């Protein structure tokens, strides 16, 4: 195992590190105000408004930039003077503003925290690849590399510990196969220590994918705001937090599947369904992790790729719901209608909850 670890370490340490051209210094959503009943008050998610106002003190952000992005076209007024009209992205150097400035944003559609993003960004100084790297600007990249290396070492460990089970979990053909009778012994031991080790690895891998996407995206959803961090330690702690939540969700899902399979009279299919879910999580998370991490190292400042990956999560979950239905319809002893009821309880409702958490 030591030679493998040395090769992995050498591979990562010899990769070129390219810094992001900026990082988010502050999210201004907490500073949003609305004009209501003759006075300004704090913005609330339930507000039906198409204008928000932000009071800024440029002296606090010397050398920084104000960046505004929206799904809809908006107009920008600063101290009641029009600065830009019908744009979807607006950037302004804070040093160009007067001592105090009220930035007002207007759209034709309703403004929400999901449709409009207002942030203060700081440009990162250009550094030579052979010179010392700026610590604050590269903490995110350090996390991506260090956590990725840790996951590879973890994978090598479980591969050496139980190679047969590892190949079972990472078999793409078995993921799409509708018949898996040769794995009955594997499915019968959901809570075995070997399987639990894979649950832990799957949660760390899925958490890693989410963290890389959050790092590469401008915060848009509440879940992203919760995970936003700047320092290496904070990012690592967020990763452990989200991975802990995911592994708890895994055990809750296993419990729900076990109980409902007993209720529907298909107790022998519980392991087949749940371990199939873990297999799909491992395979998809491994693919997304490789794509996201590799792209981050090459060009971490372009959000288009991360937006695509983050948006694809919901369609991947839809694909799993359809796949497990097709798998179980050949094994369940009752009609498709009753199976659909079972799938709704064990897969569709958890899917809707996941979408609510990820995209609210």
Shape: elongated
Which stretches are poorly predicted, pLDDT < 50 over at least 5 residues? 3-20, 126-137
Q: How far is the first residue's CA from the last residue's CA?
A: 43 Å
Q: Helical amount among residues, as a percent range?
A: 40-55%
Count of structural domains:
2
* Radius of gyration from the alpha-carbon trace, in angstroms: 24 Å
Elements, N to C (H/E):
HEEEEEEEEHHHHHHHHHH
Number of strands: 8
Major β-sheet profile: 6 strands, antiparallel
Tally of DSSP helical segments: 11
Mean pLDDT: 80
Q: Tell me the fraction of residues in β-strands, as a range.
A: 15-25%
Classify the secondary structure makeup into a structural class.
alpha+beta
Layout of SSEs?
Blueprint: H1 2-13, E1 22-27, E2 33-36, E3 39-42, E4 51-56, E5 65-78, E6 81-93, E7 101-107, E8 116-123, H2 135-161, H3 163-169, H4 172-176, H5 184-187, H6 193-216, H7 222-227, H8 232-263, H9 270-298, H10 304-329, H11 336-359
Antiparallel strand pairs: 1-8, 2-3, 4-7, 5-6, 5-7, 5-8
Helix pairs in contact: 1-2, 2-3, 2-6, 2-9, 6-8, 6-9, 6-10, 8-9, 8-11, 9-10, 10-11
